Amino acid sequence: MIKVGVIGAGRIGQVHITSIATRVPDAVIKTVADPFLTEETAQWAKQMGVEKTTKDYHEILEDPEISAVLICSSTDTHSPISLDAIRAGKHVFCEKPIDHDVDKIMEVVHALEGTDLKYQVGFNRRFDHNFESLQKTVAEGKIGKTEIIKITSRDPEPPSLDYVKVSGGMFLDMTIHDFDMVRFLAGCDAEEVYVQSANLVDPAIGEAGDVDTAVITLKMEDGSIAVIDNSRRAAYGYDQRAEVFGSLGMAAISNDSQSSVQISNGKGVTGEKPLFFFLERYMDAYGKEVCAFIDAIVNDKETPLNVYDGLKPVLMGLAAKKSSEEHRPVKISEIM
User: Fold this and answer.
1) Residues 36, 38: Cα–Cα separation, whole Å
2) How many angstroms separate the CA atoms of 253 and 143, rounded?
3) How many helices (H) and strands (E) does the chain have?
4) Cβ(156)–Cβ(237) below 8 Å
5) pLDDT in tens for each of the 336 residues of the chain?
6) 2-117 and 128-277+313-335 share one CATH topology?
7) CATH fold of the domain at 128-277+313-335
8) Between 11-23 and 39-47, two packed helices, what is the crossing angle to 10 degrees?
9) Which of 59, 132, 183, 265 is the most buried (most CB within 10 A)?
10) Which stretches does DSSP call E strand in the chain?
């Protein structure tokens, strides 16, 4: 049984605490740490089987019984805590992104060199049953050589302006998942990024220095072309779809909904809206990604997403941001 510590007890931290308590049989949470820990959250954690809570994450790193940590704290703390955890000899699961600064990510890369520590980045969508099946279909060659990848990713409503100001921008906060998914489906990296972006949802997002609507075109290393369309608002719910077109055919996935029931009558044919938010759509995926992390530790094998899988989408996000600002295609090599 692997004893783990969870650093950060906010929304995503609570998702992982719930997953480990209910879906991960080979792990148990010994300690949860959060500098802003409330009595209410501490009590909830204990009800989930957590042995100890603290406001100082160093107590987790100093505990010899804890062999792995999950970093679920604010983005600006991910790389510093990763470095602290690696120095303490802990396996690390780090929520995306590792950092918005490439140099700081490279510090984590170098810290891992020469160690046997496992490091996994939390791109949960790879573990969603729909995306898993699509990637498997493509990898098995059922649609031939990949030529076009299309991803639609639209949130049901924009985040708060306070969040927008500290998020790093849409490309590093929201689109970063889609950049990872393009790599997952293509089986290779991007060479060049071109963006058309706008503020069509909320002018205040633009005033905060960000965009809320974008179409991103990517040239991939294998010659295929990928297109991502993003919006911070979809009135009908959480819109997450993908299509891969190849030399022998096409494979596509649709949104999840509460049921597949359709009503056909004199007024038309209607069905259920997509699930409203990412926690509804991806809760099972969050559990599966932590299971994979623990399995890598128990059976001493590679994690499904390593530190370089955390680096590549950030490079793509920075290239997208540069393209949006400068109105031109940007090569990934310009960023790296």
Assistant:
1) 6
2) 14
3) 13, 15
4) yes
5) 999 999 999 999 999 999 999 999 999 999 999 999 999 999 999 999 999 999 999 999 999 999 999 999 999 999 999 999 999 999 999 999 999 999 999 999 999 999 999 999 999 999 999 999 999 999 999 999 999 999 999 999 999 999 999 899 999 999 999 999 999 999 999 999 999 999 999 999 999 999 999 999 999 999 999 999 999 999 999 999 999 999 999 999 999 888 878 889 999 988 888 888 777 889 999 999 999 999 999 999 999 999 999 999 999 999 999 999 999 999 999 998
6) no
7) Dihydrodipicolinate Reductase; domain 2 (3.30.360)
8) 20
9) 183
10) 2-7, 27-33, 52-54, 68-71, 91-95, 119-122, 146-154, 190-198, 213-220, 225-231, 239-246, 249-253, 262-265, 268-271, 330-331
Q: CATH says 2-117 is which class? A: alpha beta
Amino acid of residue 100: H
What DSSP string describes 84-140?
Answer: HHHHTT-EEEEESPS-S-HHHHHHHHHHHTT----EEEE-GGGGSHHHHHHHHHHHT
Answer for the pair 279, 128: CB distance below 8 angstroms, yes or no. no
What are the residue boundaries of the structural domains of the chain, listed by start?
Answer: 2-117, 128-277+313-335
Of 74, 138, 132, 75, the C-alpha closest to 101 is 75
